[in-house]
Here is the input.
Amino acid sequence: MHKIDDKQVRSEFWLRQGRQFLAIAIALFIVILLAIVHKRQDLFGEYSKSTIFAAQLAVIAAFIGFTAFNWRCPSCNKYLGRDINKRFCRHCRARLR
Ligand SMILES: [Zn+2]
Here is the structure.
């Protein structure tokens, strides 16, 4: 396996963390927006509860899929777990920040 150096690991982690924050913001925004669309049918027209719910599930599924792809250690490529402010990878001990 090709090993990248510490500096590359940290800059790659920084990029992935940025993408992860962005994905969280977008997913939250859409889920909240859909809830508002459902509440304000006078403004946005009528959508059935199941349509809104299916759309929210699709957003959450897309977010989970993105996370599984993005939220990995740049050094060993293992999933990083829940903590977004990690300092070290718990699998390979690579310094991330
Ligand atoms: Zn690792």
Remarks:
- Helices lie at 6-39, 41-44, 49-70.
- The chain is about 60% helix and 0% strand.
- The chain has a mean pLDDT of 93.
- The CA atoms of residues 7 and 75 lie 11 Å apart.
